[in-house]
């Protein structure tokens, strides 16, 4: 439309480069063949490295090496990564030259929980600095904040100004997703982001239903969810984007997204597909042999980790094992998915707010009782730092891991980027314990060591048979391997490959899946399973059990 536009990803697991089939990176790059469009991916790791260097460089060579190493270790955790990404985010929001160069800046943000945290940070850091909390008693990552006070104030104003910023909530037409979006809407309103819109994406078109049973079930399920739209969302302007028969990768596909008349894509069907397709029940059979252990489901937001984690936990509990099902996802809805109870199944959630308050009280009780008034005030000041949450969530994560020595612990993790930050904190803790214990010759086991032990931990990567989710899952696997964690299996969820649907739209999407199944089986996964799209929504114990029944269908 002739508007100079910059597309920016703030997602730690960004994939806009994959959508355009380009290596974009951390510098603004024009998109070939699209006049007026440029893109930028904020690289949290690169930003964190630069942030660390800005703090450490002035003291390197001036302080003893042991002290410099200690500072670097303090700056190695996930909080530093979060602050650094936030620093770049606010710099973009307040860059006058950038605003002069572009008519629109479009931010592609991380999944809900991570985005809420990022958008809350300008206010959190501004209050922290305004109240005098950013002084020398705050160690490590906080030491670089004071000089950015004015930038953070401008960022808060820009986000809250409805003439400058609009926020578009994107959801599928699914009841749990819409409930989560309603919560997100309220949280964003509470921090001053009032200019909100809603897009229902990938909605099944009524004209494609016909007489097909699966197509009708999907359409009815979505229409019921939309009819029961939470009250908080009804007042928002709403747009509907229909489900397409092709993958939204490449400029041609993106240009067709908003068109009503779309030709079916030409698909080259791979010739080397396996004939027998493993199912989720087969993987649970293998998991049950160990009789206990940590099972972690990881992947992008929206691929169905919560549902599959609940299905695995229910099946193991039905087989007589003690099972603890938990989540580290700030946007979790485990109780809604289960919609019932089993005697041998316990359910919990690692709630960052609850865990942070628990951690504060523990520290105040242990360290604060013998301090004078000034010392206790300084301790309370440090515990009000936004970075305290990182430590609190990690400690809760560690407690859950310890249970896996006696029972099955099934963890529904947060979407990829948030989970990698948690693993970053786990790694930082491991390095610090190793540094202290190695010199004493003491045997020790850290949570990271347990995650790296395939006898104790099995990571299941959840994806969809689509280009972006598969590429994202492959990147996650590479990140895990760099941390010394080898994924145990891949789960391809909501697949149409087993379907006998007569819907042309679903048939075309089933054909599209085959090339991505081939990628998973031939390039990425040592062990894998396919979970079919269900006619009945997999909510409640009975329907969750259906996901773990052996499938006899062949491709």
Strand order of the largest sheet: 10-9-11-8-12-13-14
What does the largest sheet look like?
7 strands, parallel
Shape: globular
How many helical elements?
22
Would you tell me the structural class of the helices and strands?
alpha/beta
Topology, number of strands: 14
Strand fraction equals 5-15%
**What is the typical, i.e. mean, pLDDT?**
80
Percent of residues in helices comes to 40-55%
**Rg calc:** 24 Å
Ends distance? 45 Å
Low-confidence stretches: 133-143, 263-273
What does this structure look like?
The strands form 3 sheets. This protein has a 7-stranded parallel sheet, with helices on both faces. Strands 2-3-1-4 form a 4-stranded mixed sheet, with no helix packed on it. The chain is an alpha/beta fold and 555 residues long. α4 crosses α7. It contains 22 helices and 14 strands. The radius of gyration is 24 Å and the shape is globular.
What attributes characterize this protein structure?
single chain, 555 residues, 7-stranded parallel beta sheet, 22 helices, 14% strand
Helix and strand arrangement:
Blueprint lengths: L4 E5 L6 H4 L9 E2 L6 E5 L2 H13 L8 H10 L3 H16 L2 H6 L2 E5 L3 H19 L18 H12 L6 E5 L3 H16 L5 E8 L9 H15 L3 H4 L3 E5 L8 H6 L23 H9 L4 E6 L6 H14 L4 E5 L6 H5 L6 E5 L2 H16 L5 H11 L4 H16 L4 E5 L3 H23 L8 H6 L4 E8 L2 H16 L6 E7 L8 H21 L3 E5 L8 H7 L8
Parallel strand pairs: 1-3, 1-4, 5-6, 6-7, 8-11, 8-12, 9-10, 9-11, 12-13, 13-14
Antiparallel strand pairs: 2-3
Helix pairs in contact: 2-4, 4-7, 4-18, 6-7, 6-8, 13-22, 15-17, 20-21
